[in-house]
Amino acid sequence: MEARPGREEGKGDMESFGARLHRAMDERGPLCVGIDPHPALLSRWGLDDDVAGLDRFARTVVDALGDRVAVVKPQSAFFERFGSQGVAVLESTIRQLRNLGSLVLLDAKRGDIGSTVQAYASAYLDPSSPMYVDAVTASPFLGVGSLAPMFELAAEHGGGVFVLALTSNPEGASVQRARGADGRSVAQTILDEISQLNAGAEPLGSVGAVIGATVGETGCDLSAVNGPLLAPGLGAQGATAADLRVVFGSALPAVLPAYSREVLGAGPDPDALRAAADRAVAECRAVLAMS
Ligand SMILES: O=C(O)c1cc(=O)[nH]c(=O)n1[C@@H]1O[C@H](COP(=O)(O)O)[C@@H](O)[C@H]1O
């Protein structure tokens, strides 16, 4: 098995996710590509909406982009809808990506009471799990503190957690921009708790925030987050790389732009997938370089 850049074996002695992500973005460019095998995409690629189609779709993306982009983000739901066989495809997709050196961010948006979050942490962030990934998305709406088992296991094994803050969907704002008794928005409260977890980390903390590229001005202070800012919503949901400037302002250097359908729609030709990813990196680099 090929060694992964910056990954050392052994409990507790791993380089942090923030450091590994920082280097991957430097070397491969600021881009996360999602693997979202929508039925419509399978059909456009000439594949059946079944486990074999799912497997072919995921393998094609991995072969085209696994040695090229910094982060690949499989969306768990599209695999789970095929039951245990779909989950087996997800596990094998994760393994292949890890061998090709891209960081794997599993988009599972998990969240629950702390004792159950402990089990989610074991599923995704414990190196002995078949579903072990570099980082996972998490939902903080049962309280950021309920995610502590994920933060702890991630810190122990060099993993990362991306916490939803201001999501790209229009329905998110009524909850996330609501203000508490101290006048802070829910999103700002989440970001402040992330800042505390990342305090002092260099070059970048391992707890990220998810802020959609579609949200416009955040009304939040992002200056202390000191962690990666995942920006989905580009392409298919209507945001462009230029929108990143409005959303993130002086926090642009920490932004990890994320595209799924916009890049995947170029498939199944591997060269076309690579060209779409290269275009996305170039567009985002041009904006991020202006910061
Ligand atoms: O956590 C995410 O990745 C996420 C957060 C968010 O606020 N908005 C959002 O679209 N996502 C995910 O990012 C992907 C966006 O896909 P496209 O719209 O095809 O680029 C989907 O897998 C979403 O589940």
Write up this protein.
Belongs to the OMP decarboxylase family. Type 2 subfamily. With 291 residues, this protein is an alpha/beta fold. The protein has one domain: TIM Barrel (Alpha-Beta Barrel). The protein is built from 12 helices and 8 strands. It has an 8-stranded parallel barrel, surrounded by 7 helices. Strand 7, helix 10 and strand 8 form a beta-alpha-beta unit. The longest helix has 19 residues. The protein is globular and about 55 Å long. The structure holds orotidine-5'-monophosphate.
Condensed summary:
This protein is an alpha/beta fold and 291 residues long. Helix content is 43%, strand content 14%. The protein is globular and about 55 Å long.
The ligands found in this model are: orotidine-5'-monophosphate
Number of domains: 1
CATH fold naming: TIM Barrel
Strand content is: 5-15%
Reading the helices and strands in chain order gives: HEHHEHHEHEHEHHEEHEHH
CATH superfamily caption: Aldolase class I
Radius of gyration: 18 Å
Number of E-type strands: 8
- The overall average pLDDT, rounded, is 95
The major sheet is characterized as: 8 strands, parallel, barrel
> How far apart lie the N and C ends?
39 Å
CATH architectural arrangement: Alpha-Beta Barrel
Helix fraction, binned, reads 40-55%
- Which residues form runs of ≥5 with pLDDT under 50? 1-11
